[in-house]
Records
---
Amino acid sequence: MERKVDTSALWAVIASLFLFFIGGILTTVVPPLIDHSWSKPFKNDEPAKGLTGELKPLNAEQAAGRLIYLREGCRYCHTQQIRTILADTKRYGWKGVDAPISTPDEFVYDQPHVFGTKRTGPDLARIGGKYDTQWHRTHFRNPRNLVKGSIMPPFPWIVADPKEFSELVAYLQTLGRDKNWRPANDYEK
Amino acid sequence: MQDQISRAEATSASGGAIIHEDLTSRWFMLSSVAYFFIVGIIALIIAAKYVWPDFMGTSSWLTYGRLRPLHVNGMLFGWLLAADMGLTFYIVPRLCGVKLWSEKLGVATGILWNIIILSAVVTLLMGVTKGLEYAELVTPISVLVVVAWLMFAANIFMTIAGRKYQAMYVTIWYIMGCILWTAFVYLTGNFATLVTSGVNQANLHWMYIHNAVGLIFTPIGLGIAYYFIPRSSNTPLHSHKLSMIGFWALAFVYVWTGAHHMLHGPISQWLQSIAIAFSVMLVIPVWAVVYNLIRTMKGQWHQLRDSVPLKFLMSGVVFYLLTCFQGPMHSLRTVNAIVSKTDWIPGHAHMAVLGAFSFFAIAGTYYTAPRIFGKPLFSQSLANWSYWMIMIGGLGMFTTLWLGGFWQGWQWNNVAIPFIDTVVALHPVWLMRFLSGVMIFSGIVMFAYNVMATALGPIPEPASRA
């Protein structure tokens, strides 16, 4: 048997694909069949069961803003996930309220996903409603005007295009809003 | 079995029974080296942007978010994979004792590959992207990649099918594995992700990202190391059986680990635990390979002094061991809570792709360039300099990013420190990374110049260059 696999290219092909597919199928095809939270959008209207809210698909303007987010590669420096780490919930909270941990049912409509791998800048999963439009305008024109020491690139070509700018801001303001985590909905516009 | 590698070469050398044309290898070598240089410039620009954020900052084409995918795709597919494919076109016919099945098909593959890389450059700078890391290329270009890969696969498998020796050296195993796994890994990352969304898509995507390194660059890189270490040191491989254990363990274990990129993230806890368990198991194939290669060099280490390819190869083996020790360690939840998403991760990724696999490819290029162009290497001393520049620059970059990233992670976990202070604190780390990058780049320039000068230079008079 060992001899056969050792000298036959056909056997080698079959065996290496077989071993690969065991793990491949068990870790990519099977999990979404078992864990339904991956495909069921978040919805809760009973305060007893935790935070209320509902995940809604983006409208046309917000979706256009998301495309700008992708085009400019924002996801290379900003993640969108509050992890099961205490510091994440504290750091990305607002006015003393902890940010809720991200769950799979909040991302069902994300295509492509923008979880990100690197935090050169802060996480954006709960950024929606924290800053108003005027803040974003100044910040995108040159981040260092507002945040000294920031290394975010300036995006003057977005600010110069009123349509693109309002689309991008509309998208950012949706982030993390499907869970009603801030008391009295004190969101900025 | 161990001496098979020598038998294969001996046949081709004796009496000129087989004359390898190596046209395809030349195409791939020259284009990959050119991309290594060009994309190296992009790398320097984005490293500079960390230190001077307004540098080239007001043009949308040259902003960080567009140059970074160009850097990643250019290095992975323009330089490293193309260099590895070129070396495969050199190695496989020699190990099989036959000519390459079709040089015409090979050259066509090389031309198609250049079309792919050039269209990638244009689309990425325009911000036209699929929006998935490592899989940014838009679908038409991805389709071309699949076509090119099928052409490559057909050529290599037909060469193997017509081989003169029944037993296959371990390099052939790894190359066959790479071709097969890459096909499925690439299809998953670039096409299956188109019809999924959210966490389901992310899971497929991370399976692709992880295995782009684990089942594309690892097997082809190890295949190259397994060929060139015994070749350049003129020593038989320590153990064929151990190399097989490493190969089959890699085939089974690697694909399970994708979800470790989402530890603590919004993905099922049990899937995270599976990914962690298999990540730790990765030490089995890694240590089998490293032990085998280190033992091969037993009593032969003095050869490193005079051989640039061996310097690159053995440093690459050490970096491979280190990077594959880091990998399983990061996947432990406690360590991950500190290093994940920090600058440690690029330090780790660069040690794998630059420190290990690019070192193997550079070594292979230095070894084969004189042989496929039929001239001596332009300059041995320049080659030696290129090693030390890339090595010292690389070490500088890896270590500053690890230390800086670890420190960054500690700061993030202390919520009393505002985020912007953790950015300002890393300024010296990014400056050091840029300076190390300048050293690495100067090594790349020496390497590229040396290869180009060898290829384009005149054929020297016999004995004039003893």
---
Amino acid sequence: MEAAGQMKIIVGIKQEIRASAVAAVLVLSNSALAAVQPESGLGLPRDASQNGHLVDWLMNITSVFNIILFTIMCVWMGWACLKHNRNHPAEYDPGSSKHSVTIALAVSAFIFAIVDGNLFVNSINDLDREYWNFEKVAANPKTVRLEINAHQWAWDARYAGPDGKFNTEDDIVTWNEIKVPVGAPIYVELTSTDVIHSFYLPNFRAKMDAIPGQVNRFWFQAKETGDYDIGCAQHCGTHHYKMKALLSVVSPEEYKTWAAEASALAKRAFDPEDTAAHWGWDWKEL
Amino acid sequence: MHAEAHPAGVHPEPTSFLRRYIFSTDHKVIAKQFLWAGLVFLAVGGSLAMMIRWQWAFPGRPVPLFGIFLSRSGGVITPATYQSIFTMHGLIMIFFAITPVMIGCFGNFTIPLMIGAQDMAFPKLNMLSFWTFVISLILITASFFVQLGTAAAGWTTYAPLSTQIGTPGAGQTLVVAAIFVTGAATIMGAINYVTTVIRLRSPGMTYMRMPLTVWGLWLTAILNVLFVPVLGAAALLLFLDRVFGTQFFIAGAAGVKGGGDPILFQHLFWIFGHPEVYILILPAWGFISDIIPFFARKPAYWYRGSVFAMVAVTVLSAVVYGHHMFLTGMNPLLGKGFMTLTLIISIPAEILFLNWLHTLWKGSNRFPSPMLFALGTVFVFGLGGLTGLYLGTIATDLYLHDTMWVVGHFHLTMAAAAFLGSFAAIYFWFPKMFGRRMNEGLAKLHFWTSAVFITLVFCGQLVAGYAGQQRRLYDPYQYTFLSHLLPLNRWTSYFAFALGISQFVFVYNFLSSLVAGEKAEQNPWQVGTLEWTLCPSPPPHYNYATPPVVIRGPHEFANPDVIKALGRDWIGQTEPMPKVAAAAIKPAAGGAKD
Amino acid sequence: MTAMGEVLPYRPPRAREETTAFLGMVVFLGSWAMMFAALFFAYGFVRTRSVAWPPPDLPGLPWETPAINTLVLAASSAAIQYGLRVIRQGASPKLGRALLLTVLLGAVFLALQVSVWTRLYVEGLRPETGGAYGSVFWGLTCFHALHVLVGLIGVGLLTRRAFAGAFSAAKYLPVRLWALYWHFVGAVWALMFVLVFLL
């Protein structure tokens, strides 16, 4: 509930944020001449995450099942249409005998058990062990915590700085660019100031809605360095399509140097009067 | 209230033009009114779709033909216009095209005829339903001409984007009002359908002898009665937020006051919205569950199974809506619960599929246009159903949520399947409705072009979604990871344009058959349901002079006794079994009971 | 012979028609109940998520006048029900008086509602500044009052017809339907009184 109280303050300030946020982070955005590598082919975008392969595997195995089922359906339908045509006498079978019903139910149950069962079991496992396993992330000393505030049409990110506390003078605040170290879990809390947005990392198979009035959380972990697109997945107004940002994954050393430098800069630029720039909230560990 | 001389649900045939064709209370006339309105708005919604596809194929280039509507920007679709286009495409297709054609037209036309009633239970309410619908059409049309343009918050109208914060202007307000009004019209219709099926079935027309079309439409009506009011409540609260400054959906601005909640809107919307997707497909399931046995010349396989499956889907549809909200930060336990319920829906769906396939198997299949469209519906719905599995599961939804995969999936189910299913119904009942035949060659041409291109269009969307493309992007190629998808999207657009152009075949066929089509016989398809066996084409004002007495189910085909006695492979629902053969009937002919 | 199936029992057309109309009304009210259920759901949703209800700087809702109002509506429901009973015995003038009483009580309800609205508006509870708390109060009570108003008009017209002797023991379907509607409106109010004003 405390976080909710904090949130309401965030929501109240709305408009001023963008201007001050831009001023505070201008120095940091220079490296935005990043080079996101385009994808090729029609498959999934390349997987840069440590756990995205779970989603990929689950989709692929389901696709295999689906292709089999769909092929059976088409062959069945095609065969019936070609062979059992008007020259074939129709069989008088209402299909309501115990035998027919048992077969229909058994086939349905079998398909359900295999295809849906596989989806269900693996999805629950993946969620409990990885995607929704925030205990694991919270316990990891390497975890980097990030607060993200979405607004029309940009992403603001806030790092706690050396003191480990949010909304203090040493916070690093960036605009449309997020720098994270490779190999460490990135634990994100996010909200929005105006309308609903959705933070989307295609190369990490991760997505979470940013909703005004509430703080949502998710986490991801990069397995290789590089630059990646961050997108907005929820229609958020006229310039929804331009609400993109850059995720740059760097080595832990590079990240450390950058963080120290950025935090020092932020401290110097800190203006206690500029309340609009203090949009952060107390981190709420789950 | 009612003239004394007429029994329940019957009114005298009007003689003036106005009462006969405009303010008519005859269900068949109202059905045609809904058909015309629905087809016109199908064309409008389709044109908007073409503009979206143009933008994705040739971003920023002036739109040919439709460019005249965009004169202020020199024919180019601007980001602001673009969001109105996709918003109105969705709303118009769902509420003003599919709903009137499937439910307004075929609900009205088939229910009384197929259950042997003389009209709907409340003919005046039926007329009121249509004219209320017309008011919503006027509101929606007016919204295009106000300042700042029409609605732009997506068909889902998510708050707070749909409040004054995100979308100022009268356009969005008019559209919200239109949704409320069309909801009222839908409820009026649904009350009529529910009551009519319960009260006005002719003697012997038990629930288990009703054609599956009636089952599909009746379950649809029940869902409409229960869940459209929830949409009404959401629209009402949104209207209050927009016009009277209340804050139901706007998060609180200061710690001291209790704030509204944007998520509340999503709950209300999807409590309605998930049943709605079944509202849009259940009628199609009903049509094709009848049409397939009709043209396989074989009893519908496990009729009761199909009925139970449809009932099960109806019940389940009310409790799975949370899968639209997996990423809103909902309680994990709740999310998993919704996932489980969602996956369970695949069981009744599988039973329906197996029944369709079994009906075809060992049939004597013929392929006139209604059958082709029915088979096309099975094909696209198969694709749509299977691709839904990825979205009902949370882990895979993390990636696919709000991507073009979702768009492809729901277009295959509730657009392609509803589209092909509606055309199956149009080609099937056209002779009964208008007393003329449509040109079969053109109908087949229309089928092949439509079925092929509609599959290609929506599969193209699936592929784009699998590659990660989000929905509703004005210019997807702003993103580096999507820049390689331009050729794919361009090809998808070409298929979409081909789909659009091939609809002119239908328009020509429909209009020319109306005036110059070959006169239809009473029962051109040689099937046994009441409207074909007892009514001339088109049916007279009262449908049936006396209530028909039904003695068997709707799909009595290939009964060896019937073939022996009558020399044909079908028998009407009211037709007594010829004496000679009746003696020979053994309990084995249990199909008569179903 | 093949089975004839369960042939629907024959009823006189008027009885059939009346049952059909009554069923239609029940279906309609069931549908409308879903709309009010959705509104109550909305109320519960924002209330459970809010920090303080009512917020400290806004007036609390009174319970006294709404309690009286609950009784007023209950009495008017009883009046229309009485009217239904007497018309079954053919007492048309008595029906007219019962319906008149229903309308008068309904009007008293609305008058008391207006007094509650005015008081709270003056005390500073406005739809546009009251946050979710104000929204719920204004949205729900006004929407309900609209239904009372519709009922008043409907029952008012019935009253006129009743005094004109339009109803008899054999023919009183509109009274039955409006009575059902009126009970529905009263039941929704009772629920609203408990959930919004008392809790």
